[in-house]
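FYI - complex with protoporphyrin IX containing FE, inputs then prediction.
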Amino acid sequence: MFGLVLLVGVTMLFVTGLLSYAAYNPDLDRVNDETPDKGLLGFYLFAWPTHPYWLYRLTQGVHVTLGVVLIPVLLAKLWSVIPKLFDWPPVRSPARALERLSLLLLVGGAIFEFVTGILDIQLYYVFPGSFYPLHFYGAWVFIAAFVVHVALRLGRMTGALRSRSTRTELRTDLSHTRPEPPDPDGLVAVTPSAPTMTRRGALGLVGAGSLALLAVTVGQSVDGGLRPTALLAPHNRNPGSGPNGFQINKTAAAVGVSSADVGPNWRLMVRGGGREVVLTRAQLLDLPQHASALPIACVEGWSTDDQQWSGVRLADLAALVGVPNAANVLVESVQRGGSFRSAALADNQIRDPRSLFALRVNGADLSLDHGYPARIIVPANPGVHNTKWVRQLTFGA
Ligand code: HEM
């Protein structure tokens, strides 16, 4: 049962994880991703779409929530095979050494991916260097060992599930609970003690653990009135009220952006096609304004409901410097320290009429923490690429 849940769950984690990486458009520019030698493992990368606009909110919400919810299942699965984890001596023959190595990669890979993921969503950055290459390479090691394990064990799993009726098993009380029949791998004890728990109890305990984690996590990704229920979320569960009262990842103070950086002297420099245009905020407000209803969806899994943004279309700014069919744009922030000070966006993101250089949100000026004087907002874009406090846009032909 635990194997079956992990088979479905880990596959979904892997797919949504690969999508999360693709969402950065890591091939577009070094500022988007510095993972060394990802070449081979990045074979599947594609231009991240802007439709549907909630795509990243969904894929990353599923990735993070599922990762949290599967923790009790993973622990229970390891518990169910404990004797195999401590088999000694580990090396009796070359075949046996190979088997132990593949289990080391499987169990080690699983623990590594879950632990690094949890540390990251808890904002506890204790990694040597960046989290992304570690979690990315770890995922490939884990999934390779996982595929081998599933190929070797799928028959045993389906055989075990077919060997008894789940309904009957769920109705069996402790006095009628019998040990597993002996298995060729010797995982079942030769002379088992009397059971202390039914199979129903074991499944129920793990299921209840997973449901409890779901209940205190999912509110950060569905937002609405549920955000206060996200008890494990490290971000403020009450982001305030008013037009700017929605979730913030990093405040201006946290990344050293002061009101002097974005005061009356702030200017936007737009470059491209050999031209440069410098605009004040008032001049930007004089350009045609457009509205878009879009969420902020963070790589750490939380997201907001749709917010009503308004500002200048990115496509209009590209046209202003004579690159109407821009292939990419490099967005740079006034932010000096920390990561994600700049991000590159692709042509489909610039062309989308909902992609804005946003000046206002929900009918008010952006607050400093939401990126005043101006920020990027692009449909289905990871939050960190919706750069705040923008000072320069460089459109590439
Ligand atoms: C996070 C993922 C997983 C981990 C860490 C894990 C770990 C292990 C370990 C350490 C063993 C004992 C060594 C062995 O017999 O190979 C084992 C056995 C087994 N696993 Fe997994 N496993 C995972 C996922 C799965 C999945 C998805 C399936 C479904 C096909 C599965 C089915 C089995 C079966 C049938 C056994 C043999 C149990 C027995 O001998 O009676 N496992 N697993």
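The CA atoms of residues 4 and 239 lie 39 Å apart. Residues 3, 6-7, 10, 74, 77, 81, 84-85, 103, 106-107, 110, 146, 149-150, 153-154, 156-157, 183, 185, 187 surround protoporphyrin IX containing FE (CB under 6 Å).
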